Amino acid sequence: MTVPESPSKTLEAQLAHRPDVQDLVDRNIIKDPKVAPAIQQQRDELEKRKIEDSLRHKIDHRPSPEKLVEQNILKDPKIAPSLQRHQLDLERNLLQDTLEHKFQERPDPAELVEQGILTKEEVPPQ
């Protein structure tokens, strides 16, 4: 069983391990003691207003939803978001089916030579 230390020794041990002032300033726990509190407050208010102005400017100049739809950033707002993924899959499948159909209907090289589109030298070997 350990004997409890005196409060003064405990306090001394804790004070020996406390962080220095600059570390507390760097971690934003306390304000810089070299600057007057009134100036710090004004600086903080100025920074806050600067951020507010920047955000207000960005909000005022953001593109419209129609512009974002044109740029393919947003999907069509007339369609429910839960259905937009299905619509995209459907469009992709339709495009794939159309391409497969066109490949199947594509004339073979012999027909292209007969029609004068290709010469016999341009026909790839099979």
Automatic annotation (TrEMBL):
A GO BP entry: positive regulation of transcription by RNA polymerase II
Subcellular location: Nucleus
Presence of keyword Translocase: no
Gene name of this polypeptide: irc3_1
Entry protein name: ATP-dependent helicase IRC3
GO cellular component, one term: nucleus
Superkingdom of this protein's organism: Eukaryota
Alphabetical keyword list: ATP-binding, Helicase, Hydrolase, Nucleotide-binding, Nucleus, Repeat
GO molecular function terms noted in the UniProt entry: helicase activity; transcription coactivator activity
Residues making up the signal peptide according to the UniProt record: none
Chain positions of RPEL repeats: 9-34, 53-78, 97-122
InterPro entries: Myocardin-like, RPEL_repeat
Pfam families, per database record: RPEL
Main subcellular location: nucleus
